[in-house]
Design brief:
Layout (H helix, E strand, L loop, with lengths): L22 H47 L2 E4 L2 E4 L3 H7 L2 H34 L4 H13 L2 H11 L6 H8 L14 H26 L3 H9 L4 H12 L1 H15 L4 H6 L12 H11 L3 H32 L1
């Protein structure tokens, strides 16, 4: 006959004492674990809620407010609904099309210099075996300078009387240039200054991507007789294609919103409006013409253009990766 065991009592056959399962201690452990998990989650959600509130208040709210303001008219503190009036007003403004033309031209020039030059500098730095750390600091130094100080430094360089650039040209017995006073060179001068100011960050990003390429690929290319240019085209570019495409998208978005450089170098408009950009025209509508509705409408147009371009670019990039 099987022995009868009573929890917390004695075995009916052996007389040994048995103990009950520690149910109360298990429940207490589970409750303590749940309490610790709840405290951790509460702390994490507290930080998350704070970040979301800051992001919503300083990023999303101004965007939504701009969209609303684009369809309103504000006069002496009174706001009325304007419908499509602001959009029609800016489209019929000749400065609107000139600003877009200058912005697109500035973006193309900035891509030729600000996208290609940092990549070539990164490739050059990657070839150095000694002193690379000092060279990285030297390349990144302009980024650490305040933007206003950098722009004013270039404004001094561009001065036709005592500027550094014209002094070098006179020393070489070459014709000088009216850098910021000529319609043909004003926008290019802005691009040169902007490239020098911002190329440090892109160069370090490219350099980090280059240092992640396996050395065996370059060794195999050298064994095949590939020179420097062929190694760059067949090894470096394919291995860094993802970061190149990302940096291209970010640079186009950034250059389409340029404001500081033309505003400080040429006063914003430049000779005959040659450096008027979309963002500067937006500034003029808001603070010179006291037309916040038109400024918001122009900002909305810029937002839509950049969003459409980003969507198309990402789609084309994704299709290209899928085909590979």
């Amino acid at each position: 006959m099987p022995a009868l065991v009573v929890p917390g009592g004695q075995d009916s056959r052996t007389g040994t004492r048995t103990t009950a399962p520690p149910q109360h201690s298990d429940e207490a452990s589970r409750k303590a674990a749940l309490a610790r998990s709840a405290r951790r989650n509460l702390t994490a959600h507290g930080f998350l809620v704070g970040a979301v509130l800051c992001f919503g208040f300083f990023s999303w709210y101004p965007m939504v407010r701009e969209v609303v303001l684009a369809f309103q008219r504000t006069h002496r503190g009174r706001t009325t609904w304007a419908g499509w009036h602001n959009l029609r007003q800016i489209v019929h403004d000749p400065a609107f099309w000139q600003a877009w033309r200058n912005t697109v031209e500035y973006t193309c020039l900035a891509l030729l210099l600000g996208f290609v030059v940092p990549f070539l500098v990164a490739v050059l730095l990657n070839e150095f075996r000694h002193g690379q750390g000092y060279l990285r600091v030297l390349v990144y130094l302009p980024v650490m300078l305040p933007p206003v100080a950098s722009v004013l430094l270039f404004k001094y360089f561009y001065d036709p009387g005592y500027g550094l650039f014209d002094h070098i040209l006179r020393t070489l017995h070459l014709p000088t240039s009216q850098w910021l006073q000529s319609t043909g060179t004003a926008l290019l001068s802005v691009v040169i200054a902007s490239t020098w100011m911002n190329m440090g960050s892109a160069t370090l990003i490219y350099l980090a991507a280059l240092q992640g390429i396996p050395g065996e690929l370059y060794e195999a290319a050298e064994l095949d007789g590939a020179g420097l240019l062929r190694r760059i085209w067949h090894v470096t570019v394919p291995q860094t294609r993802l970061i190149l495409s990302l940096m291209l998208l970010m640079q186009i978005i950034a250059t389409m919103q340029v404001f500081t450089e033309p505003f400080l170098l040429t006063g914003g408009a430049g000779p005959q409006g040659s450096t008027t950009t979309v963002v500067y025209l937006m500034y003029q509508y808001a603070f010179n013409f006291d037309n916040y509705g038109a400024a918001a409408a122009l900002g909305l147009v810029l937002l839509v253009v950049l969003a459409l371009f980003s969507a198309v670019y990402v789609r084309l990039s994704r299709d290209g990766r899928d085909q590979d």
